[in-house]
């Protein structure tokens, strides 16, 4: 691992968009999970890694993902696992002096945490939907802040 990790050197043709970077980080976390010796059964791990792979592919190609109402809660669990893995890898990178990689992992963990919240909200509303990085700023404004002309106030 170097401070100029695998997300550096992305070209100007859209390869530096958030979804592509997030997809690469998901793949890194999946690789990290695949090497762990955990108590869960091999089928559970294989299924989790398949979900991570599908999410990474979706972010890589469409900058997000679509889900049915029945998928909201299981996806929330998957993003919780991803967030935890991202935070562990961020801590490891920091301890190793790889601050650029640590910052990218922390950014990804924050994004995953926001997606967990949105998925849980959709689950409670019994809704499916689409989550993309293209809508991230809009989601923040609509869900967390009220733009009332006097600045932003938290709901």
State the gist of this model.
With 155 residues, the chain is mainly alpha-helical. It has helices at 18-34, 42-62, 72-95, 99-124, 136-144; strands spanning 64-67, 129-132, 145-147, 152-154.
Task: Give a verbal description of the structure.
63% of the residues lie in helices and 9% in strands. The chain contains 5 helices and 4 strands, in the order H-H-E-H-H-E-H-E-E. It has helices spanning 18-34, 42-62, 72-95, 99-124, 136-144, and strands at residues 64-67, 129-132, 145-147, 152-154. Helix 1 (18-34) runs antiparallel to helix 2, helix 1 packs across helix 3 (72-95) and helix 3 packs antiparallel against helix 4 (99-124). It has one domain.
Order of helices and strands: HHEHHEHEE
For the sheet with most strands, the description reads:
2 strands, antiparallel
The rounded Rg comes to 16 Å
- The strand order across the widest sheet is 1-2
Number of helical elements: 5
Question: Segments where pLDDT lies below 50 for 5+ residues?
Answer: 1-13, 139-155
Question: What structural category do the secondary elements indicate?
Answer: mainly alpha
Q: Helix amount, in percent? A: 55-70%
Specify the overall morphology: globular
- Please state roughly what percent of the residues sit in beta strands, choosing from under 5%, 5-15%, 15-25%, 25-35%, 35-45% or over 45%: 5-15%
- Distance linking N and C termini: 42 Å
């Amino acid at each position: 691992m170097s401070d100029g990790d695998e997300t550096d050197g992305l070209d100007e043709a859209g390869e530096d968009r958030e979804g592509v970077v997030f997809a690469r980080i998901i793949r890194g976390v999946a690789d990290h999970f695949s090497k762990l010796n955990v108590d869960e059964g091999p089928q559970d791990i294989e299924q989790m890694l398949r979900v991570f792979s599908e999410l990474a592919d979706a972010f890589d190609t469409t900058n997000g993902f679509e889900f049915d109402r029945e998928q909201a809660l299981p996806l929330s669990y998957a993003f919780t696992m991803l967030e935890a893995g991202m935070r562990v890898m961020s801590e490891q990178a920091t301890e190793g002096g790889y601050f650029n990689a640590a910052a990218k992992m922390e950014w990804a963990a924050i994004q995953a945490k926001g997606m967990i919240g949105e998925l849980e909200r959709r689950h409670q509303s019994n809704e499916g939907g689409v989550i993309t990085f293209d809508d991230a700023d809009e989601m923040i404004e609509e869900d967390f802040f009220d733009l009332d002309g006097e600045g932003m106030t938290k709901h």
